[in-house]
């Protein structure tokens, strides 16, 4: 959960850049992706061990969907173009929803 929480915090900073029509630092984007991937991998371990409830599976699916959106957003960064703000907002919303679903099961 810590990896996902730090990734979410970095995501808010990244979104703030884009919403102000500025490019985010590449290093922050990579850190955000690495922490998100770490969180997903830890969730996969929990799922494979059979320790995941139905809500955790739903949260994982939402986070996986958000990760796919993150790849799409990264493609804009690689092309040195700002992504559509609507995509950033949807990506963030799906990620936050997934995080909150998983967090609710942990607490």
From TrEMBL:
<protein>
    <recommendedName>
        <fullName>Transmembrane protein</fullName>
    </recommendedName>
</protein>
<feature type="transmembrane region" description="Helical">
    <location>
        <begin position="86"/>
        <end position="106"/>
    </location>
</feature>
<keyword id="KW-1133">Transmembrane helix</keyword>
<keyword id="KW-0472">Membrane</keyword>
<feature type="transmembrane region" description="Helical">
    <location>
        <begin position="25"/>
        <end position="48"/>
    </location>
</feature>
<feature type="transmembrane region" description="Helical">
    <location>
        <begin position="55"/>
        <end position="74"/>
    </location>
</feature>
<keyword id="KW-0812">Transmembrane</keyword>
